[in-house]
Each structure stands twice: as C-alpha cells, then as structure tokens.
Amino acid sequence: MKTTLLALLLAGLAWSQPAAAQRGARCVPYAAVYPWVYVAGRHQPCADTVDRPFVPSRWGAFFGLAVLASPRTGFGGAEVAGSYRVAPRLQASLAGTVALPTRIGSSLGVADVGKPMLGLYSLTGRAHAFLLDNARFRAGLLGGLGAGVATLADRSQQVAERGQQGCGCEPATHAKTVATSVGLVGLAGAAATYKLRPDLWLTAHAYYQQWAGATRFGRQADLSPWVLSVGLTMPDAWRAGR
C-alpha cells in the first residue's frame, strides 16, 4: 500500500511540472519533481528566476558622519539630505546638519556659566552644480541658504530629564541650556562622489557655513564652522521626460 501511494505521488508531481510550465504562472522547483536528482547534486535553478537591475530615479538621499571646526572648538555630528535632480547638471536638496554640543573654553559673554558647551544645528536648501558626472565619479560645486540654531549649555547646571522628577529613583540629567540663537546661514563649498556600484555611492561634502545676523552670545565667527561630511548616497539619475 505504501509503495502504491509513493508511486502515485511521484507521478502527480511529474505531471504538475509540464502543466505549470504551459500556464507560465509559477515555477515548480526542480527538486520537487526529481528529488533523487537534487540529492545527487545535479539540480539547476528555476528557469523563471529573473534578476531585476537597480534603476535610479531623479530622487536621491544622503546620510553621513560629519566633523565641524569653528574658532572655539571641533565638533562631531551627522548630516542627512534628500535630493531631486532638476536638470542633467543640477541637483536640488534639503539637508540637515547636527553638531553635538561640545565643551568650549569661553562662556561667549554669558554670565554665570561655569562649564559652557556649544551646539550647532542647521536646515538648508542647497543647489549642487555638477562639473563632472561619469560612470565612476561625480564632482561639483555646492551652495545653499537656510536657518541655523546655536545653543549654549552649562554642564555645571544639571537638570533632570523630563518625566523623571519625583520618580523616587536617581534621575538622568543633562546640561542646562542657558541661551539659544536662531539666524540665517549660508554655505559654499564642493562635493565629490565615488560610485562604488550602481546602487551604492560614497560621497563627501566640504563647505564653509556662515552665520548671518545677530547672535545672543558670542560672535558670528563663533557660530560659523567649516564642515566635512562623509557618507553613503542613494543614487539618482537624470531621465528626460520623467
């Protein structure tokens, strides 16, 4: 009885393979039809498997780590950007940069600050003009305008994290922000890309970001850093008619 059932099962599987091929709806694994061939190591991949190549659009994205240098200190941070290719040699993007609050040696004119820390943040609209864009490299000029935020905190004044007051435990704390400046920023510099593979590029941005307008502490130069960011780009490509 068991031998009869096994023979019927194998016959049914053998019949289903050509039927499925005629319909073209699915691909039955070769091992399901001829299991002894699979075990012997002579199986082949399904003929209906198709590798779809990566096709970039005009949209792109960037994420990278950044180092910033101002007259007061050096910062570590990050930079993210979303972009759109508006012409064969022109890209527009919206980018955000964060310089983590870092200890500085001056209170920048603010009284009663024992251990000052400076943080810089910006959100800018940018234009990137390509001077070179081939199969392996991309390079061009970068310019932009946007808003900047600078914070001055004091590590000698610690405040409890929100929601932890009165919890009966040792609360987590952070340095108290004693002053905040908001103003316009402009930037100019360059960018370069090495195209590692069709769906993964390595990009570097280098530019100077100038603070414009009044500040609540320090000078404009104190809030105007040089920026170098290096990270990965989601590729974009110009396509006429799209």
Automatic annotation (TrEMBL):
Taxonomic source organism: Hymenobacter edaphi
Protein name (record): Outer membrane protein beta-barrel domain-containing protein
Signal peptide coordinates: 1-21
Record keywords, A-Z: Signal
